[in-house]
Amino acid sequence: MQISCLQSNLSKALAAANRAVSTRTNLPVTQNILLKTHDSMLRVSATNLSIGVTTSIGTQIEVNGGISVPADLLLTFVNSLPDEKVDMTLEGDQLNIKCGSFETDLKSFKLIFNKLASILSAIFSSAISIVIYKTLSP
Questions:
Q1: Sequence-distant (≥ 6) Cβ neighbours of residue 95 within 8 angstroms
Q2: What is the pLDDT along the chain (138 residues), one digit of tens a residue?
Q3: Single pTM value for the model
Q4: Beta partners for 57?
Q5: Domain regions of the chain by residue span
Q6: Can you tell me the distance from the alpha carbon of 60 to that of 105, in angstroms, rounded to the nearest whole number?
Q7: Pick the CATH number of 2-108 from 3.70.10.10, 3.40.50.1220, 3.10.150.10, 3.40.50.720
Q8: Beta bridge partners of 56
Q9: HEC string of the chain?
């Protein structure tokens, strides 16, 4: 994903989506905001599993894509930026945000989720192997 948009538009969209972000939860993904390109728009979405908010802003899209990043970090950083053009680039599992002389990288939820999924997969495989062994052994 590689896009450019105005800080003021992005800030308003993030503030709207942030209303649906969970503050206390056992599901870390509900503390994130999903940024995804669609047509010539950037969709900004969040949910707390009871309600969901999705809003769109016009952007200049060079490369389509999407990422889920921590809402509090993203909103705080974007609100501290000057009212100029914001460039966002997805590099692997990190979102690079640049505006004027300010720059940051935010790690995606996908990176954390993939590591957790691989650990759970290994545990599940072990458990299945034990069950099969116990079932087939006399």
A1: 1, 35, 67, 69, 88, 89, 105, 106, 108
A2: 999 999 999 999 999 999 999 888 777 788 999 999 988 999 999 988 888 899 999 999 999 998 999 999 999 999 999 999 999 999 988 999 999 999 999 988 654 555 555 666 667 667 677 777 777 776
A3: 0.78
A4: 42
A5: 2-108
A6: 20
A7: 3.10.150.10
A8: 43
A9: CEEEEEHHHHHHHHHHHHCCCCCCCCCHHHHEEEEEEECCEEEEEEECCCCEEEEEEECEEEECCEEEEEHHHHHHHHHCCCCCEEEEEEECCEEEEEECCEEEEEECHHHHHHHHHHHHHHHHHHHHHHHHHHHHCC
The encoded tokens of residue 90 equal: 């997805």
